[in-house]
């Protein structure tokens, strides 16, 4: 078991509590943006404890995956509490057990800032493979800020993020997408210069 997976297996019971200040201070207003305008069959990669479930598009055919059984167990509890229409499956984003072009879109929330560099291109290629040509892959991610003050704060914050979540600000997801031959349709910052939504066009 990788160290990152082992970490999430350990913290799953406490994850929502650990994340609570960020959830209500920042994330909750960003989550709906991931799904705006999306419809059809949608894949959520890295569902975690299911924090995105309240924002799933009405009528969408949602499938959500995570590598951690413990995190999926928490997501199952949230699905039951909300009555959310979503299929939960344990799966590695670098080896998706879906047919090519089987989704209209895919989303992930702070997944790629956890994935190691060598896993980024395989994961991006797999998401692009399972999304129909022309469909969107939307990634909500932390990036390293450029402003002097925020960069200094990020340097102080990053060791804790790495310890708690296995996450970092230096994953270069956009560069990995280009290296994988994928088209970046749009990038825009949603929180200052530290949280960005990256939209990739499949096919």
Automatic annotation (TrEMBL):
Which InterPro entries has this protein been placed in? Methyltransf_25, Methyltransf_Superfamily, SAM-dependent_MTases_sf
Its domain of life reads Bacteria
Q: Name one Pfam family in it.
A: Methyltransf_25
GO terms (molecular function) for this protein are: methyltransferase activity
Segments forming domain Methyltransferase: 42-135
Q: Which GO terms describe its biological process?
A: methylation
Q: Which UniProt keywords apply?
A: Methyltransferase, Transferase
Q: What name does the UniProt record give this protein?
A: Class I SAM-dependent methyltransferase
| Organism per entry | Propylenella binzhouense
